Structures
1.
Amino acid sequence: MRGKVTIMDQVHSFIVDLVKHRGDLSKVIDSINRHVRSNYPLNEVRWYVRPDQLNQVQSSNTRVSNPGTEDYVSGLMNWVIELSSNGSAGAVFHVLSYDGYMLGRAASLTQNSLVVATLNIASIQHGGPHTAVMRSAILPRAHLTVSEGIELAKDVLRRKGHRSEATALHQPKLRPLMSKQDDRASKRLDDPLSCQLISLIVADGLDKGWLKQVKDPYRSGTEYIWLVEPLGVQPYGNADYRPSTANGDSGSESAAGVIAARLVRV
């Protein structure tokens, strides 16, 4: 049985994106250094900055980029991948940034032995709730990767019969159904990737066409989703599989049809 590795046993490699920071860097650098040193005994910090910020960062572990350029996001992603295969192989990576899109892309790198946690720099500066540290062990494959989550979501939607608009699943119910099949899908507030997992799965499905979504444009939380694939594809181990019906456990999901006049297809 796999032994538990604690935070004390792991190297945590930080890449801090300050490219979009305006003004003096001294306070934010001090806040980040205190956050890292007080919570992660084994750490290494690297800085992703603009050319005009280099003289404010007292470190040789830097790379330069500019906001609005094509390599702003890809440059940081490539840096993580490079480090994970050589100098910092085996470390837990943390990407800190002000940019939400950057954080989402970084979190999506997590797979197999590469673990990337993300945190908004503003939450460190303001002492918000997201400064909570991952005290539990972070092990490769200790939680679902995005690719594993995608396959699990597809299987759940197959098993429950959510394969058309008429049987669409209320999106907030996806995680509980996934968690029943694999508890690694449960939301863990100390794990940024876990918190973003459903959003990343849905985004992948909509982008690649294996998922459809309808929603009421005037109300939040009204998203309904269903799986799009050849009807001949069956759930794994489907001996006990029973398609959902209007009287079954997902009957309420047919509400997607009731509000269809107000829904917007994505």
2.
Amino acid sequence: MHAGLGPAAAVFAISHVAGAGEGRVDVHVDCPGWSQEASAEIEARARAQLATAGDVSVSVVCAPESATVSLTRSSAIRRLGVAVSGSPRDAFDALLDAIASLVAESDHTLAPLADRERPTTDGALHSDAASRSHPPHRILPSVAMDAELWQGSVPVALGVRGGAKLSLPGTATVGGFLGAQWGVQARGDTAAWALRAAVRAEVDPVRHLRIGGAVEGRVMFASESGSSGTTQQQAVTAGICVGSRYVRPLGPVDVAVGPEMEAMVRPMAVDVASVEMFRVPIVVVGASIELTRR
């Protein structure tokens, strides 16, 4: 494990007294290569995961490429070694799974929290969202590449976009992006490109799945060259886009890949000499790959 998030050594210990019936949860993180921010984040996520475990104490002690997780509960101590590498946030899932396994060993009525839902003391469902949540009110830059199916002499469009997201409590984000698209595989002397802007909201309902929706506007520019010269046109439309993505962490970023579909207010068509050359249909399907800073 290396110092990916800050140069200073971090030894972070906090005792948290939960509400009535939830017991006392102590979490101590001793990872010299971590920043205080990273130690505080894993500490908070561990406390959320242990909220109904009663009186329990957890310590995480890091070494190069490994960590030892110790759990003290009802005067019994259990330890588990974890192989970790990469940035601190790359190790979070492995450490939270280890804590869940130790809790399950100490009380067989508790299932591992990292992979399934379990009932809390008030009967509500407590899912692994607590372990996947991120600190709220952080700006998360993102970039993406996408492909869409158009129609006619420009059947496919490829695009890039960039923007930022604001993290909300839990796993939700809101943000916006700006992007451009270019028609490819065009037939004849047809050319097209478009500008896009959108406001998007997303949430991760379960691990590795991200769903979201956006309100988007587009301006398209097209040209057709012929014997009488070059004809240029432009069109404007707006629509609502929905999509789902498979998400995996990769170093300091989340990589999200999946399909998208957009329903537009009206299609965008390009006519030359009263003949339609191509169009962006009212329902557009495509796919994207997105990188978001965690």
